[in-house]
Amino acid sequence: MHVFITGGTGMVGRAVVQHLLAARHSVSALARSDSSAKALEAAGAKVLRGDLEDVATLKAGAGASDGTIHCGFIHDFSNYAKVCAIDQHAIEAMGSVLSGKPFIVTSGIGVAMDGSGTLITEASPVLPDTLFSQRQSEQAAFALLEPAGVRAMVMRLPPVVHGPGDHQFIPQLIKIAREKGEAGYVGGGTSRWPAVHNDDAARTYVAALEKGKAGQVYMPIGDEEVPVKEIVEVIGRKLGVPVVRKEKGEEASQHFGMLGSLLGMDGPASGKVTQEELGVQIKEMGLLEDLETGDYFDA
User: What is the C-alpha separation between 162 and 155, in angstroms, rounded?
Assistant: First the structure.
């Protein structure tokens, strides 16, 4: 199968490209910069130069493919409404040329997380009033099912995708702890986050491409519920700084910035339906083991 992918040099997308090629699929990938193009070519992918606002290139890449995986997203949370609109338009553009073909659109479990501790599953609905409700990825994907006939599926990632090359939430927590001289958690420390290793996530994308069902939400989950306080305790011990409590609201926002609200949210999640339906197994280490033995503290 020839696959077009966006976000192919991001942490998840890079692993997806590697696993697609290992499964003997051919890959063409969107590249915005020279460095991204070189990395993709070195991995064995064909490069299409452009970005998520380049509708003509998105259509050309998707239209020439046997299936498309959309991992790209502009991580500019200071302009969140704008980047969500760009994401939606990119999905609509690619979907317009994918009738009868598989199309995997990336989302996050945050769209279904109310922070109360309710277990999030593949059947959990998108909620209208969350931190992430401006992101319309799932709605845009499933709008392509009829009448366009696209085999649209959604891949909901947990808030922590860990492994080599991680530049997201865990490195940000480590950076803040280094700068502040203390490792903080929010509230009583009872909030829980799900997580997955990027190789397990990538295997799930490939399995969904090959045998996923149109209209289905899939969730690659390794750890269903890692207590945020335990994450912070590892960070504190590794850095040799105290572990401290920050109250929800203003104190958390001042200390963590945009992460303050997320750290206090309790959102365990299960991907058992995904594993059973796609026949994928979680093979890699969990988040806490990765923190202990990985490269998170090498810098």
Answer: 16
